[in-house]
Amino acid sequence: MLGHKSVKQTEKYLRLEKDHLRNSMNKLKKILDGKEVSFTRAIGKTFTAAVKSRVLESAAEEINDEVVEEFSGS
Fold it and tell me: Mind listing the pLDDT tens digit for each residue in 8-58?
C-alpha cells in the first residue's frame, strides 16, 4: 500500500533519472559528431543510464498497478 508521499517521491526520482538519461544521450550524440574524446566513459554512462531507465520504467509500472489496485478496492 503506497501513500501519496511515496508516489510523489518516486515521480521526482523518475524525472531526475529521465534528465540523466537525456544528458547521457546528448553526450553520445557529441561523440558521434566527433566533439567528444572520452568515448569509453561516455558509452559506459549512456549504457548505465539506459539500464537504469528500464529498471525505473518497470518499477513505475509496478507502482502504477499498486495504485490502481488500491483505488479500485481490489
Answer: 888 888 888 888 888 887 877 777 777 655 666 667 777 777 777 778 788
Domain span at 18: 4-72
Query: Domains in the chain: how many in total?
Result: 1
Query: Can you give the pLDDT at residue 1?
Result: 45
Residue 29: all three cell numbers together: 550524440
What does the alpha-carbon distance between residue 19 and residue 15 come to, in Å, rounded to a whole number? 6
Locate 49 and state its grid cell.
543510464
Cell, residue 13: 526520482
Closest CA to 40 of 51, 31, 49, 30: 31
